[in-house]
Design brief:
By secondary structure, the protein is of the alpha/beta class. It has 15 helices and 14 strands. α9 links the parallel β10 and β11. The chain starts with a strand and ends with a helix.
């Protein structure tokens, strides 16, 4: 079976999907970077590519819905090729109050609607991307069912998957920094500072001088604009091997985003034994399964309460929760299981 895999950029999880799918199918990829400037030329490139190759393609997988999914979906419709769209998060929400979500843009929203309406099957990474009420932030109704009129496209939920390269023994013997918290988030503008809850972490951290907070993934131009407490260290993105060291040194991971699909940073941190503090959005309650602490409303008071409860844990309680976090990811969200379900779904539609 010849599969074309399309994405608007080439993050590690896309590369992993392609690598694992290539063990079962013949996979080619179109991984153009898309932005407001190059969208017209990319649409032309896509059109030319598909005109010449559509007859050699059996099925198409698209990571996220957007401008890049419209032409492949229409080609699939015309030439009777099965098209699968993985919904990841921003393509299912609209938060105009802080300028986030693809569905807040009328033209992009239309492109997403056309894409998911005419796709063979949509593959959200979590059920919340279909229908969700955000009680953490503004009680808004999110997900494609709340933003679009009824769509008859088939839906199969496929969670993200991970293959941690650390054992339980490594988790047990890791030398953690006492009262240490880590947050990993790619932040390159003010919108993402708010989206990822970085502003809340900085505010709450001032109340806990006995604790240390590490935030990784902040662009240097944003770092210079933040008022950073003395007990907070902020870094730009770092290589993965260095990031794993940071995870193994940290007792807790904070992920208090306003919106998420199935956050990789949280899952990876838990696989390395970090005890989670989360907001109840997207897949996070499913990922943590009541392990750690939940910040029920977006406020520094609520986050500080969760941090205080975390700091009050005994050493024995920390060890127990650390192992639960690791086991939760290993047992329930493996990369092999994800690819197996993805392959099964692709073969289901003939």
């Amino acid at each position: 079976m010849n599969i074309l895999y399309i994405s608007s950029y080439n993050p590690s999880f896309v590369h992993k999907d392609i690598t694992l799918l290539s063990e079962r199918f013949k996979v080619t990829s179109l991984l153009y970077p898309w932005n407001a400037i190059n969208t017209p030329i990319n649409l032309l490139r896509q059109l030319i590519y598909l005109i010449y190759r559509i007859n050699k393609i059996d099925k198409i997988i698209i990571m996220f819905a957007g401008y890049w999914s419209v032409i492949p979906v229409l080609f699939g419709k015309i030439f009777r090729k099965k098209v699968f769209i993985i919904l990841g998060g921003t393509d299912c929400v609209s938060y105009p109050t802080f300028n986030y979500g693809s569905l807040r843009k009328p033209l992009l929203k239309r492109a997403i609607y056309v894409s998911i309406k005419h796709a063979t099957c949509i593959l959200p990474v979590h059920e919340s991307l279909i229908e969700f009420t955000n009680s953490y932030y503004d009680n808004s109704k999110q997900g494609i069912k709340n933003h679009f009129k009824p769509i008859k496209t088939a839906i199969r939920t496929i969670y993200n998957g991970y293959d941690p390269k650390v054992s339980q023994l490594t988790i047990e013997s890791s030398n953690r920094i006492l009262n240490s918290f880590i947050t990993v988030a790619l932040v390159n503008n003010k919108t993402r500072v708010i989206l990822k809850g970085i502003d809340l972490i900085l505010e709450s951290a001032r109340e806990f001088p006995e604790a240390s907070f590490t935030i990784i993934g902040i662009d240097n131009k944003i770092i210079n604009k933040l008022d950073i407490p003395k007990n907070v260290k902020i870094f730009p993105p770092i290589p993965y091997d260095l990031l794993t060291e940071k995870y193994l040194q940290s007792e807790f991971v904070i992920q208090t985003s306003i919106s998420e699909g199935f956050p990789n940073a949280l899952s990876e941190a838990m696989s390395f034994g970090c005890i989670p503090l989360i907001s109840p959005v997207g897949a996070m309650p499913t990922i943590t399964k009541d392990i750690g602490f939940t910040v029920n409303r977006r406020s520094p008071v609520e986050l500080s309460l969760a941090i205080r409860n975390a700091l009050n844990l005994t050493n024995e309680e920390k060890i127990n929760l650390r192992m639960q976090a690791h086991t939760q990811i290993v047992n329930n969200f493996s990369g092999i299981a994800r690819i197996g379900k993805l392959a099964q779904t692709i073969e289901e539609f003939n």
